[in-house]
Amino acid sequence: MVMALRVEIANAEAEAGAPPPERIISGDPRFTTWNIEDNGRGLYAGVWEATPGKWVISYEEWEYFRVISGLSIVTEEGGEPVRYGPGDAGIIRPGFRGTWEVVETTRKDYVISI
């Protein structure tokens, strides 16, 4: 049994996606996700990349992320914009409502717990 796993997206299948059209505020954002870990009990980890655009986000899950490259701005409803660039980390808690804006194509690693 392997207790530690080196995260390598070269060994993961890339999944293409995008925000639902009704949530897009600007641009034509496209996602690529490499889901490295899925424990079958609501825990996911991997790498996500998005091209420029802005869309509405609504979280029911908990997420920790760290930006690897690019620039994004996350703004909670009624809150101040928070910029995330390479090396910056963040936590988004269940119940979060706001927007995600990718200014420069952004790649992040993530851990999500449902």
TrEMBL record:
Residues 43-110 form the (S)-ureidoglycine aminohydrolase cupin domain. InterPro entries: RmlC-like_jellyroll, RmlC_Cupin_sf, UGlyAH_Cupin_dom. This is Cupin domain-containing protein. The lineage of its organism: Bacteria, Pseudomonadati, Pseudomonadota, Alphaproteobacteria, Hyphomicrobiales.
